[in-house]
Amino acid sequence: MDNYQKQLMIEALLEKRKKPSKEVSEIDTIINNLRNELKSDGIKVSEPPNPEIVNTPPVNNILNLFPTTGGIQSQVLAAMDYQNKPLKMSQITETIKEQTGRDLDVRETVRGMNKKFLLILMKINNSNKYSYWVKPEWYDKESRSLREQYKLQDMDILYDPSNIEYIGIKK
Question: Which of 25, 51, 52, 70 has its Cα between 20 and 30 A from that of 150?
Fold first, then answer.
């Protein structure tokens, strides 16, 4: 289970915990174990909400998915995982700023990650304006396109697949 899945599980269990049940102590144990695993991986983890406070809006714990001790590369990958779709360079920057408060210029980092085959550049109609970054595992080598779950909305309708170029694919 990766850190993103652990964080999602914590959030789901916190929601379930709001409802009285016999499972509360078991849920607390699981939450504490997952938090300790995240902390040992260097991920910042928020303190659990006070169970006596009722009718409070759910806390957005997405910030905890972004490594606080890692470099910009780890934050770029966390932004990609969080959005779970192809992103423009500006969207990567915005996501990192929203989640960490850091206003970073990720352009050179992202380009370097492309050269190391950590990210793929998806260029539509040979235009920089319509360029998106995707993770290599989102690309299907057999079909030479993105896997269905990662495609942009109406991508197959709006863009001719022959006009989409993928740059930085490890052979």
Answer: 70
- pLDDT per residue as tens digits for the range 20-37: 555 566 777 788 788 888
Residue 166: strand pairing partners: 122
Q: What is the DSSP string of 85-154?
A: S-B-HHHHHHHHHHHH------HHHHHHHHHTTSSEEEEETTEEEEEEEE-GGGEETTTTEE-GGGSPTT
Q: What is the DSSP letter of 171?
A: -
Q: pTM of this prediction? A: 0.60
- pLDDT digit string (tens) for 58-109? 334 444 556 655 688 988 998 898 899 999 999 999 988 888 788 889 999 9
Pair 75, 66: CB distance under 8 Å:
yes
Task: Tell me which residue of 156, 130, 157, 131 sits closest to 145, measured CA to CA.
Answer: 156
CB count, 10 Å around CB of 3?
19
| 167, containing H or E segment | strand 164-167
CA–CA separation, 72 vs 69, rounded Å? Answer: 10
